[in-house]
Design goal:
The complex is a heterodimer of chains A (396) and B (492). With 396 residues, chain A is α/β, with parallel strands linked by helices. Chain A folds into three domains: 14-129, Rossmann fold (3-Layer(aba) Sandwich), CATH 3.40.50; 159-257, Rossmann fold (3-Layer(aba) Sandwich); 272-391, Rossmann fold, CATH 3.40.50. Helices cover 42% and strands 15% of the residues of chain A. Chain A has 18 helices and 15 strands. Chain A has helices spanning 14-22, 36-45, 63-67, 71-85, 96-100, 105-116, 131-145, 167-170, 175-185, 200-204, 220-230, 242-257, 272-275, 286-300, 316-320, 329-338, 365-368, 383-392; strands at 4-5, 28-32, 55-58, 90-94, 120-123, 159-163, 189-194, 211-214, 234-236, 263-265, 280-283, 305-308, 323-324, 341-344, 359-361. In chain A, helix 2 (36-45) links the parallel strand 2 and strand 3 (55-58). In chain A, helix 1 (14-22) packs across helix 7 (131-145), helix 4 (71-85) crosses helix 6 (105-116) and helix 7 packs parallel to helix 11 (220-230). The longest helix of chain A is centred in the middle third of the chain and has 16 residues, at 242-257. The radius of gyration of chain A is 21 Å and the shape is globular. Chain A starts with a strand and ends with a helix. With 492 residues, chain B is α/β, with parallel strands linked by helices. Helix content of chain B is 38%, strand content 13%. In chain B, the strands form three sheets. In chain B, strands 1-12-11-10-13-14 form a six-stranded mixed sheet, with helices on both faces. Chain B has a four-stranded parallel sheet with strand order 3-2-4-5, sandwiched between helices. In chain B, helix 11 (276-286) links the parallel strand 8 and strand 9 (289-292). In chain B, helix 14 runs parallel beside helix 15. The two termini of chain B are 47 Å apart. The model of chain B is unreliable at 1-18 and 214-231 (pLDDT under 50). Classes of the chains: A alpha/beta (396), B alpha/beta (492).
């Protein structure tokens, strides 16, 4: 129901999410579509494009091949490129038109894998769902590449994988490095980071971790897959805010040692009714928003905070924690109007041009792309507390 | 920092593997330069998209009807150019497709958007995308009904159909539609339009002299030497003193009324063969003659084209105007000489996004003594064939490189040698140079003075470094400034 957008933007799409998640891993990643998707992705959603090589391409789908359903051209081009580049894996996904004509990407992937012997994944993206869905599928697929553990190599030590980092949610501002350092300071050994600043071999060997930390909704599917395949429990939460960080660290330790059967969400669920009269509204990525809400609650005494995550294709478990999915522009305007403060990407301030003062800007690359990229704050650990203090003092 | 990632079995430099995507021009086939395969998009972003071009119509408003991934590029482009208030969208999902009510969804959505606007736009450019076309929805109903609900607003049906680019490139279709709200008016024998250029034709260009535009005060700020000014009436043999033409072109219009006045022009002058589609459409609808002035770099040909233009417009240049052309030519050659001195032994790389006739430019620079070694282009216009053959014989070692071939992702971007001076953003990126002419789509340069200006830019590029990382990643070079200009004009 995302029809009229008079003033707002749109979230990064699922096919871009696939590319973003796999960008640094040495794979050949191809969007099957005409042409525009590629430049949109690497202009607005891919801050690494200029300085870091990656094999992300578009197939250049034509009218003729679409009408005749000629997948052979796609398969042939993928195989040719595989011989040229020798990628570690191949991933193919689609935009809206292949979705309409029913391109079977899993079948395409099988054909390619048979011909070139390189692990190949097909993702049924449609260019309509959000990046969370696409990036989630991509990281989940990597789990299938991880070799089975021959024995229980888990030593019980607190080794943590970080799941769900892409520039779409974490920018390139040093947040990921900060996250790793923070966990190390808390006594954890960081296994792998899915998937920024790490390499494929490292990721594939990370089944020896004792616990996974899901820091964005993007990481949920991979965490669930690793829980199923290797029995690695996971905690969902972004270590942002001093007390939330402590709580997550405690949960990670507990999961690392015992209670390995369960999944933990480092946030209290909140019903929509509790949020009706909330003074503060957060619009954004759900796991980050939950961390902000918890910090506002436990460190700043804010009783109720409403969270809206307008991304299409949000996992159900996230919605159940109290992240509402509101997509209509009018309803979003109404929600902003009824809140005293709105923490959101700067583009949302366009909803209420006469009330810009109530907005606390938290730029989100997955929403406003590269435009506010340099203004994305690092919110890891105690930095979130300081950021909130600064916001309360009217300095943001 | 260029980071080589984890590609075992492969190296960053394709050339080291013997798979350099470049080919010697002597070995190339102009009809099929490179195989069609996966497509790469380099970070050089200066070319304009349909969302940028549409902003050239004063007071217009764009509405895009697409799925989110198609919308994202255009909406963020609008934000970057500071023109979000002139942009809206209808984002549809699977639900709408399955319901089968896309027609009413678009009509009602457009209505809602326009009713909410306090100040109505002059013109609405309503874009549909590949999906609606493949679903075969009743687009004529959509456009007809939307327009009927707002009779005071001009509606233009526009199309974002990259899938159909083999028939109509988005650029070709876009330029035709952009003039569709221009309606027939009584012919003004002293009015012409320059059509199909993202940039105003440089104020210093001799075309304005030939058309006598300067006498109407159009040369403010051109910086042209007073000594070079010409009497256009004398040049044309017209002693009536009424020779001056009014020239209209989208990049300089300030009001929508001026856009509508384009309907009175005697002729449409264009510089890129892609624009023929638009010119033919205007000839058919408005009875305006289309005159093609190819943006080439051959002095003799330029003179021939300019003489032809004046003849077509009924004010032929007398044969004894030889001295005037010679002066223009000497001006260009002087500037080229200075540029050559500044470039020294460095190589020249040219790309096909900077100029529409890269081979014509390569030939001219080669003849002037520059070391032209690389041309980046996925294909050449058929009208480049003669220059292609000439270069294949006289400069066979020039290498042609693709711009979007997937192999270019790993092409050597730090070539050995004395360094490059690049003309165009893609040539800049691929040669890794900091000495470059930041030029897109001819940049409004045409003719003798266009060459002179280009030579000055080459000289400047040779002498001064620029940061390509900052400059070439800006989308649609010059568009933001144009939007700001229009915004300033239209804000009361």
């Amino acid at each position: 129901m995302r029809i009229v957008k008079r003033v707002l933007s749109t979230y990064s799409a699922d096919n871009f999410g696939v590319c973003s998640a796999l960008y640094e891993l040495g794979g050949l990643v191809v969007m099957h579509d005409a042409s525009g998707c590629n430049s949109t992705y690497n202009t607005h959603d891919e801050p690494r494009w200029y300085n870091m090589d990656s094999l992300v391409f578009i197939s250049g789908l034509t009218e003729k091949n679409a009408i005749f359903g000629n997948d052979d051209k796609l398969i042939s081009d993928l195989v040719t490129a595989a011989h040229e580049f020798h990628p570690r894996f191949i991933a193919v996904c689609g935009g809206p038109l292949p979705h309409i004509i029913g391109t079977d990407f899993r079948a395409v992937a099988k054909a390619v894998e048979r011909q070139c012997g390189i692990p190949t994944f097909g993702f049924q993206t449609n260019g309509m769902d959000s990046y969370i869905s696409g990036a989630g599928q991509a990281l989940e697929a990597l789990v299938s590449m991880m070799p089975e553990r021959k024995d229980d190599t888990n030593t019980g030590s607190a080794k943590v994988n970080i799941l769900g980092v892409t520039p779409l949610d974490f920018s390139m501002n040093g947040s990921v490095e900060e996250l790793r350092k923070l966990l190390e300071r808390k006594g954890f050994k960081v296994g792998s980071t899915w998937a920024m600043g790490d390499d494929l071999d490292h990721l594939l060997k990370s089944a020896d971790a004792s616990v996974n930390l899901v820091v964005s909704a993007v990481g949920l599917r991979a965490a669930a897959a690793m829980e199923k395949k290797f029995g690695i429990p996971y905690v969902v939460g972004l270590p942002a805010g001093k007390k939330v960080t402590e709580r997550i660290a405690d949960e990670l330790r507990r999961k690392a040692v015992c209670d390995r059967e369960h999944i933990e969400y480092a946030a209290e669920s909140q019903s929509p009714e509790q949020c009706q009269n909330a003074d503060i509204l957060i619009i954004g990525e759900p796991v980050q928003s939950l961390a902000i809400r918890e910090t506002l609650s436990v460190s700043f005494g804010t009783e109720h905070t409403r969270i809206i995550s307008p991304m299409h294709g949000l996992p159900k478990e996230i919605i159940s924690l109290g992240c509402e999915k509101v997509e209509l522009e009018d309803e979003l305007r109404e929600a902003c109007a009824s809140a005293k403060h709105v923490i959101a990407d700067p583009l949302y301030a366009r909803l209420l041009p006469n009330e810009r003062d109530k907005f606390i800007f938290l730029p989100h690359v997955a929403y406003s792309g590269r435009y506010y990229e340099n203004e994305v704050p690092i919110l890891i650990g105690e930095r979130l507390d300081r950021w909130i203090e600064s916001a309360m003092a009217g300095n943001l | 920092m260029l980071r080589d990632l984890h590609f075992p079995g492969s190296k960053l430099k394709n050339e080291a593997q013997g798979t350099d995507p470049g080919i010697r021009i002597a070995d190339a086939n102009i009809k099929q330069l490179f195989p069609e395969g996966l497509v790469y998009s380099s970070p050089a972003r200066g070319t304009w998209t349909i969302a940028h071009t549409s902003m050239l119509i004063p007071g217009s408003h764009q509405i895009f009807v697409c799925p989110s991934c198609c919308l994202r590029g255009v909406v963020l482009s609008a934000e970057e150019m500071g023109a979000m208030e002139r942009f809206s969208m209808l984002e549809f999902t699977d639900e709408h497709i399955l319901k089968g009510d896309l027609e009413s969804m678009i009509i009602e959505g457009v209505t809602e958007i326009l009713l909410e606007m306090e100040k109505k736009p002059t013109c609405v450019l309503l874009y549909t995308s590949c999906v609606q076309h493949f679903l075969n929805i009743d687009l004529s109903l959509v456009y007809r009904e939307s327009a009927a609900r707002f009779p005071d607003i001009d509606f233009i049906d526009c199309y974002m159909l990259p899938t159909m680019r083999k028939h109509f490139t988005p650029e070709k279709m876009q330029w035709r539609q952009l003039y569709r709200a221009v309606q027939p008016l009584p012919v003004n024998e002293k009015a012409v339009n320059f059509i199909g250029s993202y940039y105003a034709i440089d104020a210093d260009c001799e075309l304005y002299d030939l058309l006598g535009v300067r006498e109407e005060g159009g040369d403010a700020g051109t910086g042209r030497d007073a000594g070079q000014a010409v009497d256009s009436d004398a040049l044309s043999g017209d002693s009536s003193g009424k020779a001056g033409f009014t020239v209209r072109q989208l990049p300089t219009l300030e009001r929508y009324e001026e856009y509508k006045c384009m309907g009175e022009a005697l002729a449409n002058i264009y510089f890129n063969p892609v624009i023929k589609f638009a010119a033919d459409d205007m000839e058919k609808r408005l009875g305006q003659k289309g005159i093609y002035l190819p943006a080439l770099y051959d002095f003799r040909e330029i003179e021939r084209c300019e003489r032809l233009l004046t003849k077509e417009l009924g004010r032929p240049i007398p044969d004894d105007a030889r001295a005037w052309f010679d002066t223009l030519r000497y001006g260009a050659e002087d500037a080229l000489l200075k540029a050559k001195m500044a470039v020294g032994i460095r190589e020249i790389a040219i790309d096909g996004a900077a100029v529409t006739r890269p081979l014509s430019l390569a030939k001219m620079l080669f003849k002037q003594g520059f070391r032209v070694t690389r041309v980046y282009a996925d294909a050449f216009l058929p009208e480049e064939t003669e220059d292609f053959r000439w270069l294949a014989i006289h400069a066979p070692e020039i290498r042609i490189y693709p711009m979007t071939d997937s192999r270019m992702r790993r092409a050597d971007r730090k070539p050995e040698g004395p360094g490059f001076v690049a003309i165009g953003q893609k040539a800049t990126y691929f040669t890794g140079t900091r000495h470059f002419v930041n030029l897109v789509e001819n940049g409004g340069l045409y003719g003798f003075r266009g060459i002179r200006r280009l030579a000055e830019l080459i000289e400047d590029a040779a002498k001064h470094e620029k940061d390509p990382g900052k400059l070439i990643q800006i989308k649609a070079l010059g568009c933001t400034e144009n939007c700001a200009r229009l915004s300033a004009v239209m804000t009361p």
